[in-house]
Structure formats: structure tokens, C-alpha cells
Specification:
One of its GO terms (biological process) is L-valine import across plasma membrane. Pfam families: ABC_tran, BCA_ABC_TP_C. GO terms for molecular function: ATP binding; ATP hydrolysis activity; L-isoleucine transmembrane transporter activity; L-phenylalanine transmembrane transporter activity; L-valine transmembrane transporter activity. InterPro entries: AAA+_ATPase, ABC_AA/LPS_Transport, ABC_transporter-like_ATP-bd, BCA_ABC_TP_C, P-loop_NTPase. The longest helix is centred in the first third of the chain and has 12 residues. Strand 7, helix 7 and strand 8 form a beta-alpha-beta unit. This protein has two domains: 176 residues, Rossmann fold (3-Layer(aba) Sandwich); 74 residues, no CATH class. By secondary structure, it is α/β, with parallel strands linked by helices. It has a six-stranded mixed beta sheet with strand order 6-7-8-3-9-10. The protein has ten helices and ten strands.
Amino acid sequence: MDRVADRLSALGSTAALELRGVTRMFGALAALTDVTITVRPGERRAVLGSNGAGKTTLFNCVTGDFLPTSGTIRFFGEDITGFPPYERIRRGLRRTYQISALFLGLSVRDNVYLACRGVSRSRFSMLRPRANDALMQATERLIEAVHLTSVRDQLVSELAHGQQRQLEIALALAGAPRFILFDEPAAGLSPTERRELVEILTSLPPHIGYIIIEHDMDVALRVVESVTMMHNGRIFKEGAPQEIESDPEVQELYLGGGHE
């Protein structure tokens, strides 16, 4: 029993995502400089900053789209610095992108099913799925989780922009992820769609941690418990949402003055 308790204690102390001294150079340009971040399992964090602050480059390094020039990235204690993207996906890391990457000519259900199938062991099976197939059941649960049940059979090309964003979240949830990177999920959404997004993000299972990049602070600060501010490729400030929102330096740098 003591060994089990020790193992669980050690698991709880392992960071979900840990970056140490991550730097990314593009020629002579430093897009990231000595970035160090630790995110706990289940933690929800916002990474904020103006355009060019290095936020998307940070995501690209975490997902393996870019490899860091220097520094290390650990995912639940494992060094994944040099891993290709698919190996990171296998370990439970997911991501959404600023530009939608969906199969517009397929239905909502087919998009979600393909995402579930793609990360399953049976992804190469040639058998036609049945209604009670485990992946079909998982598909239906994800569609419900992102509030798209009423349009499950609709072509993705016919969805409103906000519904396509919701579908992207469903794809990121396929295959029981442990951590998700959301890249500006509220971009282009109406006020009503933003409220729907907030409800979806706050309803995610508590064991799934995430980092959200978002320019809409009214969305970002409502769905996270910690905030990292970036400026010119460096960590500028970290704190709770209330601390960041009321910080005079943040207001001046990011908001251009006071924020109501």
C-alpha cells in the first residue's frame, strides 16, 4: 500500500507540461527566448500577448510543428523535445488551430468519427462501423459535449462559423486527451457564440488541462485559473486572472490603457 501511495503522490507532483529555457530562432530572429513554463495536470491557463509576442510559435514548439533551437519540453514527465507531432498526439496532446482544418464535404458526425478512429488502435480496420460500435458511441458523446447534437447530420460546410469552432473542440477531445492547446477559439465569434464557447470550455472534464491563446480577454479570463503574459518572445508576467487584469503594466502594454 505504501508503494501505491508513493506512486500516486509522485504522479500528482509531475507537471502536465514543462518548458525549460525554450528558445526558437528563425535565422537571426528570436521568436522565443528562454521561455520557462510549468502547467499542472488539470490546470487551465491562458497565454496572452499582442501580435508577434510569440504565442503561436510557443504552441508550435509544444506540438512539434517547430523544434526548439534550445531548451527542453516535458509532457507528464517525459522529454518530448525531439518527438514528431504524431508521437505527442499518441501521448495525449491535442491542438486546435487559428484556421479551421475540417472536412467541409462530410457531416459533423463523420468528422468526429474520423477523429476518434484516427487515434484508435482499430484505425486501419476495413469493417464498417455499427451504431453500437464503441467509436460511434464516443462520437455521439463528443457531439453532445460541444452542443452540436441538433446538426450532427449536417454538412460542415453548412455550419455557422461558431459551430465549426465547436466542432474543432470535439475533434481535439477525440481519443481521451490529457492536455489541449486552444489557438484563438473565439476568433470571429458573435457574443452569443462566445457565451457558448465559455460554457463548453468550463464543462470539460476536470482532468483535462489546457492552454488557451486568446485575444478576447473577456473569454480567456473566464475559463482559466492562471495567466502567462508574453511580450517579444519572452515571459512578461504570470498570475491569477484577477491579478493580470488589474495590473497597470499589463493594461498599458496589452490593452493600451485602462480596462473596464
